[in-house]
Structures are given as structure tokens and as C-alpha cells.
Amino acid sequence: MLVKECICHIAVAAFGMGTWLSVNAVYVELPLLVSFAPEGYDLATYIVLIVQLACLFPLIYGILDSKLASKELWILYNHAILIPIMLFFSGAGLVMAAFVYDRPGVINNSKHSYWLFVAFFIISIPCTTSDVLFMPYITKLENTKYVATFFIGMGFSALVPSAVSLIQGANANLNGTAANPWKPTEGGVLFGPRIFLILMAAICCLSLIGFIVLLKHRNEVSGDDLSKAILQSSSNSICSVELNVIEKDGV
């Protein structure tokens, strides 16, 4: 029982880590990404605008949730389907960013990191939606003891990318030179942005695994509750029959 409890807490923390990990990963990698982006340090401004644009999705989800709250299928499956999709978007967006950040596009003689913007928009959708999608799921588990663990996991969504970027040397002074996408770069960068972003995508997979473990655990608990309810109902029925028999015998 204790082992299962520990596994559930680890799964909740891993799940919580997937909330804002992808956006934080891009932010901490900005010192290296700006050397590839035509926008330079203005890239941060574009990223903020994209995050704000992605904030429309929590609003859309909230409207859908209020309209479909009484629908049985929505109640049963909206978290089980939407959360894995959101976590997949996080990982897929990071992988996409890993291979397009150094490939700016030109539209109307204007050179920008268009593909990186698309990748970051994909990344931003699950992060902004997590507050209205992930948290309600945690609160609907058998009790609220996992909420604190979930918030710890949310803290890891900032801690893990920051720690990895420090190990990477993202804050190294490259004297205006661009970091190598794959290999170490003179100046103290151990590995390039491409490896970093792919590594963050792999960590997003841990969040997905954590959610699957929680989903399995919740189904087991629901099954146990259903079994108990059936047994209780059967027991009540048997007692009722016995009382009726006793009353008839007494008569």
C-alpha cells in the first residue's frame, strides 16, 4: 500500500511538471536561441505575445466545459482525452522547435523565425490550458492529498529546465558567436539548443507517463468503489429479504 502511494505521488509530481515545462524550457534557452533568430533579443517579446494569444484556449475550454458539463461523455472522457493531447503537443512542439529554431523564413522580404513562432504557439497551448484542465483533474482524485504534490511538480516545471540549462552553460559568454546545435561550443556550452530541446521533450514524456499511471490508479479506485457499492447493495437486499421472511414467519 505504501509503495503504491509513493508511486502515485511520483506520478502526480511528474504530471505537474508538464504544466509549464515547455514554455520555461524555451525561455531559459533564449540566451542561445537569440544568436540564431533574426529578431535577436526581441525574440522574447514575440514569445510573450504568442503566449498571450494562446491564452484564448483556456477561455474556449472553459466555455465548452460550461456548455457540456451535463453531458455524460464529456464528464467521463474530457480529461482522459484532452490531457494526453495537451502533453503530446508540449513534446511535439519542443521537438519541432529543436529542428526549426535556426531556420528563419522570409515573407515579403521580412526575415523572421516563423517556424519557431509556430512551434512556440503549439507549446503555449497546453501550458496556458493546464491551469483549467490539469488542476481540476487532480482535485477529482479520491481525495485532495495529491494537490500539494501537484504544486511541487509545477515547481519542477521551472526547476528542471533551469538546472539543465545551467549544466548546459546556456549563460556562457560566446562573444557573439552562435552555439553549435549539437556539439559543445567554445565558451562553455556543453551541448547545443537542439539537444536541450529534445531532452525537454523527453521529460514531457515523463509527464504523460505520470498521467497514465494516475488514470490507471483512478480507474482501479473507481472499480473498487463500484464493487463495494454492489456488495453493499447486495447485502442490503439480503437483509431486506431476511427481514421480510422473519416478519412473515412471525405472522
UniProtKB/TrEMBL annotation:
One of its GO terms (cellular component) is plasma membrane. InterPro entries: MFS_trans_sf (IPR036259), Riboflavin_transptr (IPR009357). It is a multi-pass membrane protein. Keywords: Cell membrane, Membrane, Transmembrane, Transmembrane helix, Transport. The keyword Transmembrane helix applies. The keyword Cell membrane applies. Its main location: membrane. It catalyses: riboflavin(in) = riboflavin(out). This is Riboflavin transporter.
